[in-house]
């Protein structure tokens, strides 16, 4: 693709970060993943809705005919349909007005719910060392839950992404002797076959599993989703020219490519020890060199003379996690 005529910028209106989804392939993935976990599955719909938006995923949960749904915080209860039963994963210091299952991981979490009536999940400490009670503190916390008049729905063990399923299973097994056998335990981040193996080894105990990323994206992310951003303007430049918010020096002759994507949509530099690998943008299977870090709604790339260069209206590939990205458009194919 040829660059625009020398000295004349080419511009188009509109700033777009676009998530494109193959509807049939995505729905097939969601259904097959749900089937692999079976009746123990509890979908997670939190944050930005994993890039889709929470309402889209709430509808998908309904299609799966699953009633409970996990949300990230009490602030995400606002758009949960009333025919779903929300379970709030993060402890709150302000009880919600809407009915929901809340999470407690300490005596102070129970104290913050004074006057509220409902059921809670007791969060167990994992190797993440985030929220959760230790085995030594569990009896006192369970007693506090009961004295507060709260129902105990289940215990919850949020396992880390680091490590493997054998390590995560070991954390579950280490907790079981400390838990009453008839109270359900909800776990996370296990492959279906490992989850079912744990449940089969302890048939007296009800197990459930919270699943988010694997259900909505696949691990690794499925080819049924694509994140892209529109090229809004191109402008010829020479080495040594100054451009951008910080008047950065253009490193070589070529084309300045203004991409309609920035931090407002969650687009940021990738983490890498190699500066040449920090740009999240690709075109023609080549990583685009960024003049500066992404700004609010625009990122400026520099394409060297002779290299494949996008033109106005082209979509460049964006390498970013969807759970940290808010697309301007969701396009179903």
Write the layout of secondary structure elements.
Elements: E1 10-11, E2 17-21, H1 23-37, E3 41-43, H2 54-63, E4 68-71, E5 85-88, E6 102-104, H3 107-111, E7 119-124, H4 138-147, E8 151-157, H5 165-175, E9 185-188, H6 192-201, E10 207-211, H7 213-216, E11 225-237, E12 242-243, E13 248-249, E14 254-259, E15 281-283, E16 286-287, E17 289-290, E18 299-304, E19 315-318, E20 329-332
Parallel strand pairs: 2-20, 3-10, 4-5, 6-7, 7-8, 8-9, 9-10
Antiparallel strand pairs: 1-11, 2-11, 11-14, 11-19, 12-13, 14-18, 15-16, 15-19, 17-18
What shape does the CA trace take? elongated
Would you tell me the structural class of the helices and strands? alpha/beta
| Helix content percent band | 10-25%
Our measurement of the CA-to-CA distance between the termini, rounded to an integer number of angstroms, reads: 26 Å
Instruction: Name the poorly predicted regions.
Output: 1-13
Largest sheet: 10 strands, mixed
Radius of gyration: 24 Å
How much beta, percentage-wise? 25-35%
Overall number of strands: 20
Tally of individual helices = 7
Mean pLDDT reading: 94
* String of helices and strands: EEHEHEEEHEHEHEHEHEEEEEEEEEE
Describe what this molecule looks like in 3D.
It is a single chain. The protein has 333 residues and is an alpha/beta fold. The strands form four sheets. Strands 1, 2, 11, 14, 15, 16, 17, 18, 19 and 20 form a ten-stranded mixed sheet that branches. Strand 17 and strand 18 form a beta hairpin. The longest helix is centred in the first third of the chain and has 15 residues. The protein starts with 9 loop residues before the first strand and ends with a strand. 37% of the residues are buried. The N terminus is likely disordered.
């Amino acid at each position: 693709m040829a660059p625009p005529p020398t000295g004349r910028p080419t511009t188009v209106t509109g700033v777009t970060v676009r998530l494109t989804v193959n509807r049939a392939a995505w729905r097939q993935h969601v259904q097959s993943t749900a089937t692999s976990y079976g009746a123990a599955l509890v979908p997670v719909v939190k944050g930005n809705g994993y890039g889709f938006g929470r309402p889209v995923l709430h509808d998908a949960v309904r299609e799966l005919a699953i009633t409970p749904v996990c949300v990230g915080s009490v602030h995400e209860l606002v758009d949960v349909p009333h025919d779903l039963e929300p379970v709030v994963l993060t402890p709150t210091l302000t009880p919600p007005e809407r009915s929901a299952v809340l999470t407690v991981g300490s005596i102070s979490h129970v104290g913050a719910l004074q006057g509220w009536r409902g059921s809670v999940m007791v969060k167990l400490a994992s190797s993440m060392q985030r929220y959760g009670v230790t085995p030594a503190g569990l009896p006192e916390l369970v007693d506090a839950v009961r004295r507060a008049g709260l129902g105990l729905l289940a215990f919850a063990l949020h396992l880390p992404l680091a490590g493997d399923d054998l390590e995560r299973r070991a954390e579950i097994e280490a907790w079981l002797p400390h838990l009453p056998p008839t109270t359900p335990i909800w776990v996370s981040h296990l492959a279906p076959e490992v989850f079912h193996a744990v449940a089969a080894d302890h048939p007296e105990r009800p197990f459930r599993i919270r699943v988010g990323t694997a259900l909505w994206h696949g691990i690794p992310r499925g080819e049924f989703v694509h994140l892209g951003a529109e090229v809004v303007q191109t402008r010829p430049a020479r080495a040594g020219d100054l451009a951008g918010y910080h008047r950065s020096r253009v490193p070589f002759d070529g084309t300045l490519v203004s991409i309609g994507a920035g931090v407002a949509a969650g687009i940021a530099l990738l983490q890498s020890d190699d500066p040449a690998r920090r740009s999240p943008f690709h075109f023609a299977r080549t990583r685009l060199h960024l003049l500066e870090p992404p700004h609010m709604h625009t990122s400026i790339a520099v394409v060297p003379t002779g290299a494949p260069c996008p033109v106005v209206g082209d979509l460049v590939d964006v390498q970013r996690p969807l759970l940290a990205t808010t697309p301007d458009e969701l396009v179903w194919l």
